[in-house]
Design goal:
about 80 residues; five-stranded antiparallel beta sheet
Length: about 80
Amino acid sequence: MEKVEVGRKYRHFKGIEIEVLGIAKHSETLENLVIYTHLGTGDMWARPEEMFLSDEDVTKKAGNTTGQKYRFELIDE
């Protein structure tokens, strides 16, 4: 994944579907933070964009209920 798409839905490798609400700047480091919500709960979360886009292979991580390779994968609509 090359960039985060605001307004799009992604699936976390633990099966949670999320929607990206926007990109914010950290007030001190100025790093980009992805702001997203867990669909169905309304909980809001922030994660560094670099971590969100990470190409780390998570296929063998505990809790990977989807079998997907990356932490977040875009859901085709």
